[in-house]
Amino acid sequence: MKTKGHPKWYPEAHVTCACGAQFTTGSTSPTIAVEVCSTCHPLWTGQQKFLDTAGRVEKFNQRAAMADKKKAEAAERKTRKQAEQASEAGSAAL
Ligand SMILES: [Zn+2]
To answer: Label partner for 79 (CA 20 to 30 A): which of 6, 26, 60, 71?
Structure first.
């Protein structure tokens, strides 16, 4: 093993989570702060929780609303076109 080039190892690094959980682990940093851990992650808690960074959930909802609006507009255009074609067919028959 080289004597130089190895980072300092902390076998009992202190980890604190945003939920308040604390535990120790081995790390090259003496203290670690995390946003989510195994006690509060939705996968283990079974509760839905959004880890919203920079309003991504909001953006997604906006896009979904916009898509619905476009779909409604497209459907309206389609029915209008069909009505026009029907009236043209009616006038051509005369
Ligand atoms: Zn946590």
So the answer is: 60
